[in-house]
Amino acid sequence: xxxxxxxxxxxxxxxxxxxxxxxxxxxxxxxxxxxxxxxxxxxxxxxxxxxxxxxxxxxxxxxxxxxxxxxxxxxxxxxxxxxxxxxxxxxxxxxxxxxxxxxxxxxxxxxxxxxxxxxxxxxxxxxxxxxxxxxxxxxxxxxxxxxxxxxxxxxxxxxxxxxxxxxxxxxxxxxxxxxxxxxxxxxxxxxxxxxxxxxxxxxxxxxxxxxxxxxxxxxxxxxxxxxxxxxxxxxxxxxxxxxxxxxxxxxxxxxxxxxxxxxxxxxxxxxxxxxxxxxxxxxxxxxxxxxxxxxxxxxxxxxxxxxxxxxxxxxxxxxxxxxxxxxxxxx
Length: 331
Hints:
The protein is mainly β. The protein has helices spanning about 1-10, 15-35, and strands spanning about 45-50, 55, 60-65, 65-70, 75-80, 90, 95, 100-105, 110, 120-125, 125-130, 135, 145, 155, 160-165, 165-170, 175-180, 185-190, 195, 200, 210, 220, 225-230, 230-235, 240-245, 255, 260, 265-270, 275, 285, 290-295, 295-300, 305-310, 315, 320-325, 325-330.
């Protein structure tokens, strides 16, 4: 199939077109060979074909020019029943070499394989091939044999790691446990402890704090209502009309809607006439048609040819007039 694809590519032909092109040639060659093989008078040890014309050699014979020659299998071989090729094959435990069947020498602690190529044998479980022999696999203490393992044919038991040709025990310190991995130290500290060299030391969690799992750096967090200060947790003082924020950073609190932060207090936002609280609730905005003037809202009185602009808190001139100080003048 690969050859056919390559041929199609080189000849710039599709597979169907190529088959159509070469089929007549193949047919001629096949018919020519068929017409030559097994034609003419039927020789001894041959029978007429049940289809078409010609003859075929009987089992145990192979065609040799215009006659049928007896197949003489070598020792340790059997007839295949084919009238082409050698007509014989070697028994199990033997392999074909030239015109004979040579015995496959299976070493101790090995077994025959179905394939006759290569060695024709494989080592039994617990043995490894070394030249033409099978040597026992040495499994060290505290190790186990690996089935079909690549590289080293054994692995260390849990709690041990390989070191050359042996398995050394993993030294687990107090307040630690095995990880099941042979990489790194092979152990981790219990909850509430952290690694310090080859030991596990207690994580100091201050009052009003709790332990963080898998944190890097500081291993604890302050409870709600407290913030970290050096190695302790101090209470967050929330002023009247304020409330705790989820974050412990900054002051840790914010003012309610309608109040603004002033130092450590929440001061009520005074909304003047013709104004309203903004969306944040910490300031006010004048209604449309009014503008901010210090702490009040004053009405906007546009001059002639003027009107309230899009902001609602100023004015502009209609075309073709332009603003000039407090009036609208022709452009």
